[in-house]
Design a protein that fits this description.
Layout lengths: L1 H24 L8 E6 L2 E6 H5 L4 E8 L5 E11 H6 L9 E6 L4 E5 H5 L10 E8 L2 E2 L8 E5 L7 H6 L10 H4 L4 E7 L4 E8 L4 E2 L3 E4 H5 L4 E8 L5 E11 H5 L9 E7 L4 E5 H4 L5 E8 L2 E2 L7 E5 L5 E3 L7 E14 L3 E2 L5 E8 L8 E6 L2 E7 L5 E6 L5 E11 L2 E11 L15 H30 L1
Parallel strand pairs: 1-10, 11-22, 14-21, 23-29
Antiparallel strand pairs: 1-2, 3-4, 4-7, 5-6, 5-10, 7-8, 7-9, 11-12, 11-13, 14-15, 15-18, 16-17, 16-22, 18-19, 18-20, 22-24, 24-27, 25-26, 25-28, 28-29
């Protein structure tokens, strides 16, 4: 009897355990699937039924993992994430979106990701949050919901990932961008923006620009260094400690600056300043986009700020330090040279502009100015050169400016010359001799030559005697 009672208890416990196991193994119902989307207009929580009623995209895709193996091949179906974001107030260039999984794993994506605003839109394709894989819908598809990219070749490689990731996300593999079991989508709004672009003269247009918000820039490798500046009146300001990002690193977002290009820095108040490649890549003094000064955030009335820092506490010219920086644009390099820096009034000066972008740029119009007076335009030749002559009528100092306009931007270069009645020959830059000076030298040479012959003849006569 004792054994029968024990057997009865054992069977009851076994059935209870089996029932509990079956209960635990049951998948979540479709009604339990929820996706939360947060934006400036509030928060929306969507069920699976809600998502299935929205506009959808589907395509076959796959991705590479960190060691280059291909994974996840199949048919993905889901809602464009841009559509979901638009329902809570949308986003602008410079804003970002965080995609968060149930285990708090997250990835951040840019405006360009959500709206596929890349130079080559085939690399990434549309971006969706998928609720179905090969016809299996969540919760039966246990990896979903999942972010997915739908490139035209059905393969999102690590190279594609690098080409469509902002500088703050360059280390992510393609697999890392496919976030599994997504539960939240959060829009992060930028406080200030920086537009980075590169003008291609040969194509006659700028490459698609990319906009970085302050959140993204602060996630790029930053460093702290010191520098100060000297005002026009000689007063010294600083040095102070600045934290920010190397300008040359930011330019890598559009392929970097070439040896024969310049950098046009723009500010929110319309001020702009052009820097040469040598200034941008100077190894002794670093151009930095700073967002902190002496450990505190730079006030929005002057930041972000272009500063010059480095070892040895460098002090640089104050006019180079630019406040409220809003854009960095790689532009062609423009140079101006004069055949004379000193000239008499009524003597012509040849002004030559040279335009390059790695190679000479031909068939482009360059405008020439002397002071506030436009003196004309000229077209660059096969060597990238364009020239005009200018003849001053009075003595004085003259500022020469050449300007090349492209799109809505322009680059300028300038030089100075002086007109004076005391100049002997027009002040050739090459140090050439005037006609009068040459005549004097020729005369002296002839006299010395005749004297030398005379001396030789006299000595010969003495020997004969």
């Amino acid at each position: 009897m004792k054994y029968i009672r024990f057997l009865t208890i054992l069977i009851a416990v076994s059935f209870s355990t089996l029932a509990f196991s079956v209960l635990v193994a049951q998948p979540c119902s479709a009604s339990s699937v929820a996706l939360t989307v947060e934006g400036k207009n509030g928060t929306q929580v969507y069920s699976l039924t809600d998502l299935q009623s929205m506009p959808y995209l589907q395509n076959i895709t796959s991705f590479q993992n960190g060691i280059g193996n291909w994974k996840g091949y199949g048919l993905y179906r889901g809602v464009p994430i841009s559509y979901l974001v638009d329902q809570v107030g949308g986003m602008r260039p410079g804003d970002t979106v965080s995609i968060i999984a149930s285990d708090n794993y997250s990835q951040t994506f840019s405006f360009n990701n959500l709206y596929n605003n890349w130079t080559d839109q085939t690399l990434q394709g549309n971006m969706i949050v998928a609720y179905s894989f090969n016809g299996t819908v969540v919760p039966d598809w246990t990896s979903g919901m999942e972010t997915a990219f739908l490139p035209t070749d059905h393969a999102f490689s690590n190279n594609d990932c690098a080409a469509t990731s902002t500088l703050d996300m360059k280390e992510s593999s393609a697999a890392g961008r496919f976030v599994k079991d997504v539960t939240r989508i959060v829009v992060n709004y930028a406080y200030w923006n920086l537009t980075i672009s590169s003008w291609n003269v040969s194509l006659g247009k700028a490459s698609p620009s990319i906009v970085y918000g302050d959140i993204q820039i602060k996630n790029i490798s930053a460093y702290t260094a010191s520098g100060g500046y000297i005002k026009l009146n000689g007063a010294r300001v600083g040095p102070d400690n600045f934290t920010g990002v190397n300008i040359s690193s930011l330019l890598n977002a559009v392929g970097g600056i070439s040896p024969n290009s310049s950098l046009l820095v723009g500010a929110r108040d319309g001020y702009n300043l052009t820097f040469t490649n040598q200034q941008v890549l100077n190894v002794n003094v670093t151009m930095m986009l700073a967002y902190e000064m002496n450990g505190a955030a730079i006030d929005s009335s002057i930041g972000p700020r272009l500063v010059f820092v480095g070892l040895g506490l460098p002090m640089t010219a104050g006019h180079l330090w630019t406040k409220i920086v809003s854009s960095l644009e790689i532009v062609p390099y423009l140079n101006v040279t004069l055949n004379r820096t000193q000239v008499k009034p009524d003597k012509p000066v040849t002004i030559r502009a040279t335009l390059t972008e790695g190679i000479p740029i031909q068939s482009q119009n360059v405008t020439f100015w002397v002071g506030d007076q436009k003196i004309g335009e000229a077209t660059t030749d096969s060597q990238g050169n364009a020239s005009l002559e200018y003849t001053p009528t009075t003595s004085g100092s003259y500022l020469v400016t050449v300007e090349y306009v492209f799109g809505v931007s322009s680059v300028v270069a300038s030089a100075n010359f002086t007109a004076s009645t005391t100049v002997n020959d027009g002040g050739s830059n090459g140090g050439g001799l005037t006609g009068a000076t040459v005549a004097v030298f020729v005369t002296l040479f002839v006299i010395v030559f005749i004297l030398a012959i005379g001396v030789v003849l006299v000595q010969r006569n003495r020997r004969k005697k």
